[in-house]
Amino acid sequence: MLKAKNKLGLVFFPAFDWAISPSHPEREERLLYTLDQVHEEGIADIEGIKFYNPLLADDKDIERVHFCVPDVPSVVTQSHRVSAGGAIAAARAVLEGKVTKAFAVVRPPGHHAHRVVYGDRGFCIINIEAIMLEHIRSTFGPKRVAIVDTDCHHGDGTQDIYWNDKDTLFISIHQDGRTLYPGTGFPDEMGGPGAFGYTVNIPLPPHTGEEGFLYVIENLVLPIIKDYNPDLIVNSAGQDNHYTDPITNMNFTAQGYARLTDRLNPDIAVLEGGYSIEGALPYVNLGIILALAGLDYSHVKEPDYDPEKIKQPNWINDYIKRLCEELYQRWLRKDDAARKMFEGKDFVQRKKRIYYDTIGIMENQEEIIKVCKSCSGYIVIKSKCDLGYSILAITIPRDACPRCIDEAHKTYESADQGDYSGIYLQDRANDEFNIKK
Amino acid sequence: MIIGLDVGGTNIDAVLLKGKSVIEVAKVPYDPSAILEGICEAVDKLTRDIDPGEVKRVNLSTTISTNAVLEGRTSPVGMILESGPGLEASFLACGEENVFLDGYIDHRGQEVAPFSENLVHEASRRFKRRGILAAGIVTKFSVRNPSHELKAKNLLGGDFNPVTMGHALSGKLNFPRRVFSTYLNSAVYDRFNSFAKAIKRAFEERGIKAPVNVLKADGGTMSLAKAVSFPVYTILSGPSASVMGCWILSNFSKDAVILDIGGTTTDISFLAGGVPLLEPQGINIGKYPTLVRAIFSYSIALGGDSAVRVEEGRLIIGPRREGPPAALGGSRPTPTDALIVKGQLDFGNKKRAYLAIKELGQAIGMEPEDVANLILEKMGNMIKEEVEGLLMELNSRPVYTIQELLYGEKIKPQKAILIGGPAKALSSVISQKLKIPCEVPDNYQVANAIGAALSRITAEVTLIADTAQGFMTVPELGVRKRIDRSFTPEEARREAIKLLKERAVFLGALPEDIETEIIEESCFNMVRGFYTVGKNIRVKAQVKPGLISLGEEKVEKDVESKE
Ligand SMILES: [Zn+2]
Ligand SMILES: [Zn+2]
Question: Residue of A30, A311, B170, B361 with fewest CB within 10 Å of its CB?
């Protein structure tokens, strides 16, 4: 019988009774053939691989990460709590020492969900990795974590949430935002004053294949992670870089994903996108599972796999090589750059327009981050959207200094309820959440 | 009248029933190398005072196939496997010869690539060269499309017997388990076949013309004639005989835990909603995980004869048996001795039991009566911990819908049903530990034989309809046929029930025993691009496990009286 080299926990939850709408990519059928493949391969019988059911993310888990408007119960459905709870169950299995690695194959995904949430965008409502991670931190203590997002779309939500948190290194590898939703994720998006350079965006040209992805992992991602030396590596394991994916333009493969997983060696992987439900997902997920378990994945290939057909064009090799060099230089010089940008400033302001494609609304946001020498600084967000909400939201980071805590609380208390539909305070230093309506 | 026989590890338990009442009981020690002789002796004892012609049915649970596997007395098997992309498959080479085909069928049952026929001819040559007669053919996803298995069997020709095909054994997905189940089925075929022939002859000699059924591990039966093709189903049917017996005798319709406390082991099973709980995938046979449907049964090394000793001032029970209880001349005290000291069992040499327990007590400074209590207390705790651990695991089996995750039923036993030698004596301590009432059914000493006697023929079928492809597959029957694009879930249900009934009759069921139910059902819209291209419908139907209908004897008697 087979035995896994690494003890692996699997949360496999296909949510066969939930869809955004009957013909939406995020529908009941999405993981049907993948589960068939996992069952037929007899994965559950491999010694050292154990299946877990999802937990349920509660309001507190969600409020550690998000400002849901008007509140959590109004925007978050049970299916999203289960999906985030699936990621939590996977992470807990690792942190409690039951397994050495875990993979949450759950839906719906979460990496497009920003800190402020009005509803569904990019098939996501709440950010399942961030909710998992903050649950872990509040249960098992502080952790330095690297999140590597290998979904084809820019992980803009995760970037937004960890923009100013240098205990969370966020690396996103994705199809160039000039050619794909959500249109962000360029190298100059590098983080706020408290964590400048800890957001690393790696936009790749359409048709990048195995060679390109593995080059990026080997020559950029792994060196950065080595420098950063995290306690945990989390992989947002979206699978829409696959050559058969219907909504993207990349040339990646099941073998490529398995090798990427093998090299990256994450502690926890969480499924994100991936909508080639027959041609890709059964094989990509199998490849990732075997790679995580330390088993032979060399026979995992799509039935129509043809390396010649999906070879990336030559110019992409050169392009990616140059990109990796440039980005690694940025990583090395991030502290100098931060000093030049933020020295002498009290606050840094960003204006954002965030489009909710699934529900068709536009949000206008102004984010003000306190520049503080003693901590990463509190954040004040003013946000309005087409639904008629206008909110003030204040975040106190986990590492906040007493002065920042004090200033943030004063801002919350003195804000006039007449000016906003809701005033929110997320105090991560004291693990509290308050709303004035 | 019905005869029920359960061939156990050391004894054959047998009952003669009229309706549900026990007319005669026999317990016959036997030599495992002479199972047939043992069975005949038991049958002769039961039928001493009746006309053997009055026996209307014989149901038996036998260890013949189990022993063949556990003792390695099986036939060599040539395996033909097709694994396609996925796990590296060399670990599946369980036959004496193994040939891998180069084709592939995918998860939807679509042929991705045909296999080269030469490989099957090559396999045939290799098997023959080594004198292998038994063959097994298993292809990945054959339960979605059995055509490669069927084609390979055709190519193999008539030179091999048996040729077991994976899809015929189970409708479940799990290629490795399908491979091992298929291998075992072919490997025990010969032994079971000669046993079946011998039984048939022996019963005929005795004037018993009744149909003979054999018990399966899932608590159902099948006719002896059909069992010859599926001997793998008869492996490890022993625990299911006991569970079916408990179920029948207790007639409990809610959740319960069933404890069969023997000399060296205690077997733990459950009723869920009044029905015996099954293994989720299938039973493990020796080192092989299989797809053989089986009643869930977990064995712990703790029984009435487990040796009790003191280690570093602490009482330890088991895990080994080191001879019989002290009361019967053994060298070590046992829980049975403790029960004798407490006056709850009455046999053997009580003084020896007392002295053995007293000696234990001296090692830890306790009075014999207190030691006896402590032993039982400890035994109760050990059983409680195991039961709770199993429940925790069973109640966290993976689910796939939000509905099941949030509102799914959990097993919560409201009663313990106890059988086995020390069952009566232990019932109060078990009840106290598990905090639920405890029942020791009447006739509990022969619950296993009663279970075998009254179990009915069961069957299941799996139907997968893919209306986008326009195909319907029922693997257990080797069916793959065209369907209309408008095929509906209702039609799928109807079709499944119809095929299930045919299957049950084929396996020997009487029409009045075929109580069918749909046990799993799902229907997925298949969308490609922005269009719905079809439905993926999955239905599983089974003959409810249960009691044979006891009306037949009455009916036949009415007929007789008219003559
Ligand atoms: Zn994506
Ligand atoms: Zn501060």
Answer: A311
CA distance A204 to A216: 9
**In sequence order, which residues have a C-beta less than 8 Å from that of residue A326 and are 6 or more positions away?**
A187
Q: Could you give the CA distance from residue A97 to residue A85 in angstroms, rounded to a whole number?
A: 18
Interface ipTM: 0.95
Nearest Cα of chain A lies from the Cα of B401 at a distance, in angstroms, of 5
CATH topology of domain A3-334: Arginase; Chain A (3.40.800)
* Percent of the residues in chain B that have a pLDDT greater than 70, as a whole number: 98
In the set A66, A112, A135, A207, the catalytic residue is A112
**Residue spans in chain A of domains classed CATH 3.40.800.20:** 3-334
Looking at chain A, the whole-number percentage of residues with pLDDT higher than 90 is 97
Query: What is the residue type of B230?
Result: F
Using an 8 Å Cβ cutoff, are A201 and A172 in contact? yes
Question: In angstroms, what is the span from residue A369 Cα to ligand 2's centroid?
Answer: 11
pLDDT at B558: 34
Ligand 1 centroid vs A154 CA: distance in angstroms? 7
**CB within 8 Å: B530 and A23:** yes
| Model confidence at A22: pLDDT above 90 | no
Chain A hits for B489, CB-CB cut-off 8 Å, are: none
Q: Give the tens place of pLDDT for each residue, B219-276.
A: 999 999 999 999 999 998 988 999 999 999 998 999 999 999 988 899 999 999 999 9
Query: Dihedrals φ, ψ of B480, to 5°?
Result: -145, 110
Tell if the CB–CB gap between A298 and B88 is shorter than 8 Å: yes
Cβ atoms of A196 and A190 closer than 8 Å: yes
**pLDDT for res B318:** 86
Interface probe for A, chosen from B527, B530, B532, B540 (most Cβ of A below 10 Å), is B527
CA distance A103 to chain B (A): 14
Chain B contacts in chain A segment 292-331 (CB below 8 A): 295-296, 298-305
Considering only CB atoms, which chain B residues are within 8 Å of A303?
84-85, 104, 106, 112-113
Contact residues, chain A, for B405 at CB < 8 Å: 13, 53-54, 82
Return the number of other C-beta atoms located less than 10 Å from residue A283's C-beta.
32
Q: Among B366, B363, B308, B301, which Cα is nearest to B334's?
A: B308
Residue A8 predicted with pLDDT over 50: yes
Asked if residue B411 lies in contact with residue B250, where contact means CB atoms within 8 angstroms, the answer is no
User: A30 pLDDT exceeds 70?
Assistant: yes
Q: Using 50, 70 and 90 to split pLDDT, how confident is the model at B560? A: very low
A79 in B contact zone (CB under 8 Å):
yes
Contact B107/A40, CB-based, under 8 Å? Answer: yes
Tokens of A363: 């949000």
Taking residues B81-95, report their average pLDDT.
96
Crossing angle of helices A78-95 and A128-140, in 10° steps, is 40
Helices A32-41 and B175-205, packing angle to 10 deg: 60
**What global pTM score does this model have?**
0.94
Do the chains contact at B174 and A40, CB–CB below 8 Å? yes
Kindly state which CATH superfamily the domain B2-70+191-240 is placed in. ATPase, nucleotide binding domain (3.30.420.40)
Residue A299 bears catalytic tag: no
The answer on pLDDT for B85 being more than 70 is yes
Residue from A3, A34, A40, A88 whose CB has the most chain B CBs within 10 Å, to mutate: A40
DSSP symbol at A72: H
Spatial strand order in the sheet of B479-482: B479-482, B471-474, B460-466, B531-543, B516-528
Answer yes or no: is pLDDT of B50 > 50. Answer: yes
Query: Which of B401, B405, B536 lies nearest to residue A32, judging by beta carbons?
Result: B536
Taking the CA of residue B406 and the nearest CA in chain A, the distance in Å comes to 9
Give per-residue pLDDT as tens, B437-485.
Answer: 999 998 898 999 999 999 999 999 999 999 999 999 999 999 999 999 9
